[in-house]
Amino acid sequence: MQIHDLEFKIFLSAAQIQDRVQSIGAALTTQYEDKNPLFISILSGAFVFASDLIRSFNAPCEVGFVKLSSYKGTRSSGDVQTVMGLEKDLEGRHLIVVEDIVDTGRTLHFFLEHLRSQNPASVCTVALLCKPDALQFEVPIDYIGFEIPDEFVVGYGLDYDGLGRNLPDLLVKSEE
Ligand code: IMP
Questions:
Q1: Lower CB count within 10 Å: N or C terminus of the chain?
Q2: Does residue 99 have a pLDDT over 60?
């Protein structure tokens, strides 16, 4: 499939993703059953994953969103900015941070520092995807959906310059 100037092929099917999301949701339910956790979804990329994950969480919870961005095209710009902040009081709360993909780890590193300064009771991190070969920052990730090679992916909420977020499968850039 062509998106803008690049060719992509299927990497993970919607069914494979759903299986993994359900099992993470079940593990989180066991861990947070009586804690009323606050899921914090990092926009924009995590919105699809977060919406499936919270519906696989079978206990009371709240949901918040924060918009951060560090990406331009297919490369990290190196500059993380909070574009839209959280309005909730985080003190004493059990937080579950939901990220679509950890690439260099810069976004999560920056955001976790911000969260810790607000005295939450606990912070758990969940990433659908992680590129271990691209990591430059040490970030604790408690639940990883899939470890993937250091290649550009799109779909299931992730975009390539605005396109592809609506695709139900995860696609990877094909070799030229
Ligand atoms: P990091 O700060 O370098 O870890 O980058 C994290 C953010 O970059 C993610 O939340 C995504 O929005 C974006 N990103 C990283 N890798 C990809 C990719 O392969 N496709 C689409 N977006 C990506």
A1: C
A2: yes
